[in-house]
Amino acid sequence: xxxxxxxxxxxxxxxxxxxxxxxxxxxxxxxxxxxxxxxxxxxxxxxxxxxxxxxxxxxxxxxxxxxxxxxxxxxxxxxxxxxxxxxxxxxxxxxxxxxxxxxxxxxxxxxxxxxxxxxxxxxxxxxxxxxxxxxxxxxxxxxxxxxxxxxxxxxxxxxxxxxxxxxxxxxxxxxxxxxxxxxxxxxxxxxxxxxxxxxxxxxxxxxxxxxxxxxxxxxxxxxxxxxxxxxxxxxxxxxxxxxxxxxxxxxxxxxxxxxxxxxxxxxxxxxxxxxxxxxxxx
Length: 282
Prior knowledge:
- By secondary structure, the chain is an all-beta fold.
- 2% of the residues lie in helices and 54% in strands.
- The chain contains one helix and 17 strands.
- The strands form four sheets. Strands 1, 2, 7, 8, 9, 10, 13, 14, 15, 16 and 17 form an eleven-stranded mixed beta sheet that branches. A two-stranded antiparallel sheet has the order 3-4. Strands 5-6 form a two-stranded antiparallel sheet.
- A hairpin with a 2-residue loop joins β8 (94-115) and β9 (118-132).
- The longest helix is centred in the last third of the chain and has 6 residues, at 236-241.
- It is elongated and about 75 Å long.
- The chain starts with 15 loop residues before the first strand and ends with a strand.
């Protein structure tokens, strides 16, 4: 793993190769739109890392990061930082790295369901990092579970060709000449992501969301959400290695990666976010 071996210090060639697939099964669906959907997906990605002449990472590697379920502030509360880096020695023009991410393998499973005005969506995801310095358990995981209820009586539509939910169509539009109420939905969601593993210290976070969606027409929606972060847990080793806990860095720490800034700054923080938006689909 140096600048003159397979990981070259030139830009030529593809940066990565990826193979992705998804399969879904609809074991039950009736004429009224009640259904059960199951699915799995997976991907394998081979990475190419390029380095500068001084040994620093020029391009490549991989990074996982996540912010709370909000578009108000996109600050990453949990962040692995680049999973390639950490120069540990140099012999002539050959650099040795503590961590080099060569392969990322991802897998997920899905479960959707609708029964009358009620619907649910659930998904589990995992990703495994392989390469130099990544030994043992280096799998990060996450899942979400959401439920919704149309108090105006709609059933959530499903697109069988795409294997996913379709556009919500109100029984009577609020806008236009129909003079209806539109579709009103009450929804809740729980999310969990854990990026603390054997050699990765990206942090863990779990979040709850309550929301109300008002579909004035199939293409116009007003939504308001309350998001609560139950906990943000940074790996203790990561915070120690980061010094103040808010250190800015793009390099892995000794004994394990820690995410880029602001690592540790959100540890134990449980903020609340309220957001309202109008979405128009053209």
